[in-house]
Write a structure and sequence with these properties.
With about 250 residues, the chain is α/β, with parallel strands linked by helices. The chain has ten helices and eight strands. Helices cover about 35% and strands about 15% of the residues. It is elongated and about 60 Å long. This is Putative 16S rRNA (Cytosine(1402)-N(4))-methyltransferase.
Amino acid sequence: MRISTDLTVNYNFNQSESPCRIITLEKNGTNLEPVHYSVQAKEILQIFKENFQKEDPVLFLDGTAGEGGHSFLFLKEFPKSKILLCDRDPIMLSRALARLSDFSERIISIQTNFSEIDQNLLNSYGIDQTPQGILLDLGISTFHLFHSGRGFSFRESEPLDMRLNPNSGQSAEEILNTYPKDRLMNIFYKYGEERWSKKIAEVIIETRKQNSISTTSELANLISKIIPRKFWPPKTSSDSNFSSASD
């Protein structure tokens, strides 16, 4: 995937070399440091090792599977364990399953939000026990920012979707083009901590009377024109508004 004229994203699933590495960057043909690792993988694994024996038939719940980095370590460290692999993002879940294909007989995958997991749901999948180890790694991943094409970043002009599950709920485009001013203002202020939330909401309302706002570049350009440059924080002024409108 090309991000700029000289920056390329490569996906590395060399599990034996670095099981937690997901993405590396390449610039002008030279490999750069990886930009995404499973969060605190060694520390999390150590916690489980302190609570379970290597040969225990543990049922783990990875409620935010991502690309499977943590689950790979669990399955490798505990050879008799099973993983209940969940993610609300169907694309991420499919990527995790591909990465963990060597352990397929020990994986039960469910495409859902971890908040919806209860014993009734587990029973419907033939699981009659409660998970003994649970991991939740919250937030979006580098994949979402660089490669999803759903508008989580304004590095490229992408559709304003911003849903972790693109088949459920309202997209950011729908929200921006249909919500009333007060509701938009509240979203930007409450979730984006945006001091210019009222002005941004007003301009969005006026802009959409002429044309709908449908891409990240359109929203970023709109916001950058509203906020005086002297008030821009070190990061780009559009950052907080993008995060506040996401799933």
